[in-house]
Design goal:
By secondary structure, this protein is mainly α. It is built from 10 helices and 3 strands. A 3-stranded antiparallel β-sheet has the order 1-2-3, with no helix packed on it.
Length: 222
């Protein structure tokens, strides 16, 4: 399977072929950051809702909440799995209540704690999630459980005509950060991502900002 590391390893060979005038077309979804389109996300939650009814012995309702949480916060799967009820705080911002989740230092990839505001949708899910969690994790899934449930989701999405072969939990993070890059400054997106430096964010998502300049440059030249 192609991934970022594979592409970097083959890049010198590919560039040499191009210098010799060879025509090369590479179509590979995994060579870019995977992003869930709106239609894909809607279909995904529709399937999870069906699975909630069809398989009551599996905790699909909490699985649904976890996927929504990943999209809302752009957090990593491992960070979500370590969130407890005590990690949420509500305070007044600009005269309005805002709820935040804190990802503790030892749970983040950068080893630094970060605080992220959560959406009204997630706030609405919290009472039930906290009640179910008690003193435990909000999303008490084992990796093996998530693997099997996501495999079921992929199969169902394939049956609906969507290619989910390369879509994974981390896709939710990429989707949210990509959308953020199109609307907000790099420094803000980097804080949301929890990257160790702005340069990491620029390296991974900077091309998105550059792509958005195409229409602007065209308008200026017209």
């Amino acid at each position: 399977m192609w991934n970022r590391e594979n592409w970097q390893g083959y890049a010198p060979t590919i560039h040499a072929m191009q210098r010799r005038g060879w025509s090369l077309t590479l179509t590979c979804r995994s060579c870019r950051l995977e992003i869930a389109a709106d239609a894909e996300a809607s279909a995904l939650f529709e399937e999870i809702a069906r699975l909630t009814l069809e398989e009551p012995d599996r905790d699909w309702s909490r699985f649904d909440a976890m996927v929504r949480f990943l999209l809302a916060t752009a957090c990593r799967r491992g960070e979500a799995l370590r969130v407890h009820a005590g990690h949420f705080e509500t305070r007044t911002v600009g005269g309005k209540p805002a709820t935040f989740v804190q990802f503790e230092r030892y749970t983040t990839k950068s080893k630094k704690p970060r605080v992220v505001p959560i959406t009204p949708e997630i706030v609405g899910l919290l009472p039930v999630l906290k009640l179910k969690a008690g003193n435990g994790a909000l999303f008490p899934f084992r990796p093996s459980q998530l693997f099997r449930m996501w495999r079921t989701v992929r199969r169902r999405m394939t049956e609906r005509g969507y290619d989910f072969s390369l879509v994974r939990f981390h896709t939710m993070r990429h989707t949210t950060l990509t959308r953020a890059m199109r609307k907000y400054p790099l420094a803000m997106v980097s804080r949301l991502a929890g990257h160790a430096s702005i340069q990491i964010t620029a390296d991974r998502y900077g091309h998105i900002a550059a792509d958005d300049l195409v229409d602007m440059v065209g308008d200026i030249a017209a």
